[in-house]
Design goal:
Length: about 475
């Protein structure tokens, strides 16, 4: 018999109500009301039935909550859960994945790192402060969005969305790159509109589609009102809260996010079996027939094992065919005549002129639709791909390169051409790319690989075998505008 005393029944009811409160859109209040009546009514049989019913209801509710959680929860693999209109994405919590990375990782570029950062700026107090600020939603206009919203450590510091969503659910024009290894970038953003991490960090805070603070001073004063921050700034910089130190702290934290130690690094360090035969063939192709090293290496004729990028900008035909760039370029010339950085930032994130890429910064015709070559570290877990997040899988990326996209694109980089890669060769390059995943992301990387592979079996929207194996098309001349 379910011999629950009055106390127990009360607890049961309380927990039912709590579960019900947890679960939005649930019929439970009505059910609990009936139960409450039964439990408090005089008849003994009523009470016994009611108690058993309540226990069952509680079990099924717990199950429902767990199941609902499974639907709503972000697994870190594939697209994140969809958002209600007008809603910013949920703010990720700090976790072991948000901790600074060790400098004793296999493949850690000691010389390069020493060259790009001075250790005196990376004191533990600064880094800890920067790490806290990275998750600080009070930097945004309405207290809902932090850097981590779009650079979620659980997703290798990206958001898994084609393009980022910010304050009030506003949808931007560009895909969020990872912050891992951003310390090595010579230029930040897809169009390289700033060069340092400090300059970079200031822009999203006031961008109306990202964190939407009216001014950076507003954001700083919200932080300055907090006693813990006052103490932490004093410890880290020996003075009161101010904009410059706030940005330095965020940048200091980002400079601790070096990500190596991948199977590929172990392979390069001499452990030949650290990567599969397929990945090894992929690495050969990457530096040969597939021509990837022409941009994903520091020089055309030397493979690069560190970041796999050239710190340069190219038009490789992403999204270009969907847009008439000439009128957009003329508009940008007019609207950005002053060359003010916040204006460029706003246009890049909020307007159709975003597709002009590097042109927004240089206003040179040859830079129309050119974007920064991204590093390829952890690329398996930083999709969807390219500046507009237009490609779902690494097979789509390969199909794009294989056909040498952009036949009718006069600005297409001269290094783009049909590659005539066969299917097993495409698989090999993908296998190589997956070997660049750091150990923290191995588990989600394995799941993401399985997801992309399954998707690629049913959907290869970029594949065009005829063009991939055909001649290099005649490129039209750019028309003056
Ligand atoms: C609403 C989403 C969003 C928020 C919030 C956000 N970012 Fe970003 N971040 C992006 C997008 C999108 C880009 C690329 C934009 C572009 O290239 O025009 C980017 C670019 C970057 C880059 C350049 C990386 C590279 O490889 O070029 C860094 C570094 C960065 N963000 C750090 C931060 C920091 C620090 C904060 C908080 C102060 C922040 N982000 C807030 C979405 C966001
Ligand atoms: C002509 C220069 C060039 C060549 C050749 C090239 N890339 Fe790229 N790659 C780029 C640029 C530039 C981008 C960003 C373009 C954009 O988003 O508009 C990019 C983006 C990528 C991305 C997307 C990364 C991300 O974070 O979204 C992957 C993956 C990639 N390249 C892999 C390769 C592979 C594999 C090859 C060889 C088959 C290759 N690339 C050849 C310049 C090049």
């Amino acid at each position: 018999m379910l011999g629950l005393g009055r106390m127990k029944r009360r607890e049961l009811l309380d927990s039912l109500n709590r579960v019900a409160a947890d679960r939005r859109r649930c019929e439970v209040p009505a059910a609990t009301e009936v139960l409450a009546k039964m439990l408090t009514s005089g008849a003994r049989t009523h009470r016994i039935y009611a108690t058993s019913f309540a226990a069952l209801l509680l079990l099924s509710l717990i199950f429902a909550v767990v199941a609902a959680g499974a639907v709503d929860e972000d697994t870190g693999v594939g697209p994140p859960p969809t958002l209600a209109p007008g809603q910013a994405p949920p703010l990720p919590k700090p976790s072991p994945l948000s901790e600074p990375r060790s400098s004793s990782q296999v493949g850690f570029p000691t010389v390069l790192t020493g060259y790009v950062i001075s250790p005196s700026t990376l004191g533990p107090a600064r880094v800890a402060l920067g790490q806290k600020l990275f998750f600080e939603a009070r930097l945004s206009g309405d207290g809902t969005v932090a850097c981590a919203t779009c650079h979620d450590p659980a997703r290798a510091f990206t958001d898994g969305r084609p393009v980022s969503v910010g304050i009030h659910g506003r949808i931007g024009q560009r895909n969020a790159p990872t912050v891992l290894n951003a310390l090595y970038n010579k230029a930040q953003f897809w169009d390289g509109r700033v060069s340092t991490l400090e300059q970079q960090a200031a822009l999203p805070i006031t961008n109306p589609f990202e964190m939407g603070s009216a001014t950076i001073d507003d954001a700083v004063s919200r932080i300055a009102a907090d006693q813990d921050y006052q103490t932490q700034f004093m410890q880290a910089f020996g003075r009161a809260v101010n904009e410059q130190d706030m940005l330095s702290a965020i940048a200091a934290y980002e400079r601790t996010l070096a990500s190596f130690d991948s199977p590929f690094d172990h392979f390069i360090a001499g452990d030949v079996s650290a990567i599969s035969n397929s990945s090894r063939r992929g690495w050969e192709l990457f530096n040969g027939k597939a021509r990837c090293h022409l941009c994903h290496a520091l020089t055309d004729n030397q493979p690069d094992i560190t970041l796999l990028m050239d710190n340069d900008f190219h038009n490789i035909g992403i999204g270009i065919l969907r847009h008439h760039v000439a009128p957009l370029a003329q508009r940008a010339e007019r609207e950005l005549a002053q060359g003010h950085l916040p204006a460029i930032d706003t246009v890049a994130i909020t307007s159709e002129m975003s597709v002009l890429g590097r042109f927004l910064v240089t206003r040179m015709q040859s830079d129309i639709a050119s974007f920064k070559t991204p590093g390829l570290r952890n690329v398996l877990v930083t999709g969807p791909y390219f500046h507009d997040g237009s490609m779902q899988t690494l097979w789509d990326v390969m199909d794009h390169y294989n056909k040498g996209d952009g036949v009718t694109n006069p600005g297409l980089d001269k290094d783009m051409q049909p590659l005539a890669l066969k299917e097993p060769e495409i698989d090999d390059v993908v296998a190589f790319l997956t070997s660049l995943t750091s150990p923290q992301y191995k588990a989600i990387g394995d799941q993401e690989y399985a997801r992309q592979l399954a998707l690629s079996k049913v959907s290869r929207p970029q594949r065009d075998t005829t063009r991939a194996f055909g001649p290099r098309p005649q490129q039209p001349e750019p028309s003056p505008f």
